[in-house]
Amino acid sequence: MSSSNTPKNKTGEAEAAIAASTGNVDKIRDILFGSNMRDYDQRFARLEDRLLQEAAELREEIKRRFAALENYVKGEVNSLHDDLKAARAERVETDREIVREQKEINKAVEKRELQIEEAASKAIRDVRQQLLEEAKRLTNEIEEKHKDISGRLSRDSAEQRDRATDRRSLADLFDLMAVRLRDEEEAPK
Question: Would you state the torsion angle of the CA atoms of residues 130, 133, 139, 145, taken in this order, to the nearest 10 degrees?
Answer without folding.
Answer: -100
